[in-house]
Amino acid sequence: MLNILNKKQSIIFTIAFIAVFVLDQFVKYLSLNGMRYNGSFMSLVLVFNDGVAFSMFSFLKEYLKYIHLALILLLITYLLIQKKFFKEHFLAFSIMVSAGLSNLLDRFLYGGVVDMFFWHKWFEFAIFNVADVMINISVALILIKEIFFKKKDKNANLT
User: Fold this and answer.
1) Which range, 24-28, 59-63, 67-71, is most confident?
2) To the nearest 10°, the Cα dihedral for 5, 6, 12, 16?
């Protein structure tokens, strides 16, 4: 994948990938070793999510790690085929793949994804982790660039 990028992009991709993976695993390590907090907005608890978002498909517990792996491999294959799209969004995909692999590692090590952040101010939200936040940020980066910056580029080409 990195041979698609220039040297500077490859370095940024690698640093972002490692940073997201290490940060997520570090917070999970702290959570697994007793880090807890009860706040008025958010609490830190330890939950093993053996499903996907909102614990959906938890009945597939034994197969989810392989489905998860297959989805990551499909994403990587897609990015290798869609080189231009990958190059335009390499930072977002670095974050997304790293976070996905971190959650996948949890499935193999613990039988489920280690989650710890529980938002409970005004409404109770699903318990999530750093990788989940990073995946959402990566999707937002892609959408923002595609919606706002692609339109700008197309409009500039029309004049």
Assistant:
1) 24-28
2) 10
Q: Which residues of 24-47 are buried (b: 16+ CB within 10 A; e: fewer)?
A: bbebbeebbeeeeeeeeeeebeeb
Give me the amino acid identity at 120. H
Confidence of residue 47 (pLDDT cuts 50, 70, 90): very high
Residue 115 known to be catalytic: yes
- φ and ψ at residue 39, rounded to 5 degrees: -110, 175
Q: Is 132 a catalytic residue?
A: yes
Among 50, 106, 132, 153, the active-site one is 132
Prediction pTM value: 0.85
Catalytic residue among 24, 106, 115, 153: 115
Which residues 6+ apart lie within 8 Å of 119 measured at CB? 41, 42, 125
So where are the chain's domains? 2-158
